[in-house]
Amino acid sequence: ARKTILCELETEILETINKIEAFISEIDDSHMRRIVHLRFVEGLSWSEVARRIGGNTEDSVKKTFYRFLEK
Fold first, then answer.
1. Cβ-contact 61, 71 below 8 angstroms
2. 55 with 49: CB under 8 angstroms?
């Protein structure tokens, strides 16, 4: 019974990951795609995302993301 539950959960997780990746791939702006990927797929903090991207502060990356969501 536990194996069945684990298999069902794994399937659900994989489906969710596929939906997230499909959403990200549809983002026109490559800079925004990278922000979303680093933050929500790799699970980095906003400060880590800013460091990875370079030339951005934590606040600027967050603001850029939230402006994107408002569109």
1. no
2. no
HEC string of 4-54 equals HHHHHHHHHHHHHHHHHHHHHHCCCCHHHHHHHHHHHHCCCCHHHHHHHHC
The structure tokens listed for 66 are 């939230």
Longest dimension (CA), the chain: 51
The reported pTM is 0.78
The model's pLDDT over 22-68, given as tens digits with 9 standing for 90+, comes to 999 999 999 999 999 999 989 999 999 999 999 889 999 999 999 99
Residue with tokens 């499909």: 22
